[in-house]
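B., you asked whether I could sanity-check this one before it goes into the benchmark set. Here's the sequence:
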Amino acid sequence: MEQIKLSRQEKEAVRRWAEDDNWAVRGEYKKDSGYMDCVADILETPVFQSMDNYFQHGNTTCKEHCIRVSYMSYKMCRKYGWDYRQAARAALLHDLFLYDWHTHAKETGEYFHGFTHPKTAMKNAEKYFQVTEKEKNMILRHMWPLTPVPPKYKEGYTIIYADKYCGLAEVGARMKDWFLYNLRPAWARR
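And here's what the prediction gave me:
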């Protein structure tokens, strides 16, 4: 598989983009007609919009997180001449589990969300959308190496990278806010 190499400027741009917690909310991705041609049908559905009801990492909703992972996967795959359409679509659906994972175990007794949600997301993707075998594989394998079987396709590794990168940036932004708030003197927190 071809190694992904980004210049220092590209890495810095990706870092700034991933740390911008309002990027997806502002709809910046909608300005990219190539991306929208790939995913508009998914973005407009009520089931995808319902992902705004669930928080993923920190203050980021599942919908925002999936858009970030999808757009990052799209950009990387397009840069390297890979299948950016299927990567963008699979990444948009990779966390379509449709529940609050923070309370799911207490409510259902089903533990190990990190191991089980890819299968739930894939079943939901099949239920609500027409997904290809390649897209199913990318959704099902996006948590590798936490789940034991790696993806079949290089685009699947792109989704894994984008998912981990965006997740870390989202959690990092929350931690940064917490530290900045709690390190201020008590009189400044009011």
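One thing to flag: The first strand starts at residue 55 and ends at 57. Otherwise nothing jumped out at me.
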